[in-house]
C-alpha cells in the first residue's frame, strides 16, 4: 500500500528566468507581460466580469503552496497538443506544481514521449494514444504505482486516446478526454454513444471502490448552478465554490480571454463517499498560454 504521506522538500514550488523560445508568434512572451504574476484583483475595468486574470502567456514566476502532509495532489490539464505546449512553457508549470498525479488530455501524441525529466518525476506513466495521428490522447503520470491499468471502455468500439483507468488499493482514478459534440452537433451521436457506455462503466466501478473521475469532460455546466447532482457523484469544484463563475477554457479567437468568455470543461467528479476527504480544488487560472485550457488541481486525503 502507498505511504500515507508523500515527502515535500519545500514549502513552495518556484520557477524563475525561463527560456521563452517558441515558434508560435501569438504566444511569444513580452517583457511587459512577464515581469510579474498577473493579479487576481483590480478595478472592474481591468478584469472581466468574473474576476479571472486575462494574461495570454505564462507568468515568469510560478509558485504554489505545497499540499498538507498526508494529502495527495492530483492535477488535470488539457494541453491542446503536448509538443506545442512544451514549446510554450509546459515544463515550468509541471515543475512548480509537482503534483503527485498528473492527468493530461488532448496530448495529440503518436508515440510515448521520451522525456527523461518527465520520467524521473513520474516513474509510472500510462499513455492512451489514438489510432488517428495527432488526435485526442490521454495520459496519467504518477508517483504512485497502481495495481492495474485499463485502456478500455467496456462496450465502446474504439475508445483509444480518450480514457485511462488506474486501479489503486482503495480507489479508482479515471482520466478522460470526452468526445466533443462538435460544431453544429455533427458528432453528437458519437458523444451519446460514449456517454451511454461511460455512465454504465463508472457506476459499475463505484460498486467496487470509490471513483475519482477527472480530465476534460467536454461538457459546460451552467455558469453558477450546475444541474442537480446525481446521487452517486459530485462535481467537487462546484461544491466548494458554489457562487463563482470561473472557467478552465477560453478560445484563442474573439478575444475570449480578455472578455471573460470561457467554459468550465475540466473537472473532478467524485464518488460521494470521497467528497468529505477533499481539502482543496482550485483552477490555476493564471497558467494560460501553453494551452487554451488551464490546469485544475485537487488535494485529497491520501486514500489510494
TrEMBL record:
It comes from the Eukaryota. GO terms for cellular component: nucleus. The record marks 293 as: Interaction with DNA substrate. Pfam families: Exo_endo_phos (PF03372). Belongs to the DNA repair enzymes AP/ExoA family. Residues 1-58 are annotated as: Disordered. The active site is at residues 177, 216, 293. The record marks 266 as: Important for catalytic activity. The record marks 218 as: Transition state stabilizer. Keywords: DNA damage, DNA repair, Hydrolase, Lyase, Magnesium, Manganese, Metal-binding. Its cofactor is Mg(2+); Mn(2+). Residues 49-58 have a biased composition (Polar residues). The keyword DNA damage applies. The lineage of its organism: Eukaryota, Fungi, Dikarya, Basidiomycota, Agaricomycotina. This is DNA-(Apurinic or apyrimidinic site) lyase. Residues 75-293 form the Endonuclease/exonuclease/phosphatase domain. InterPro entries: AP_endonuc_1 (IPR004808), Endo/exonu/phosph_ase_sf (IPR036691), Endo/exonuclease/phosphatase (IPR005135). NCBIfam families: xth. GO terms for biological process: base-excision repair. Mg(2+) binds at residues 78, 106, 216, 218, 292-293. One of its GO terms (molecular function) is lyase activity.
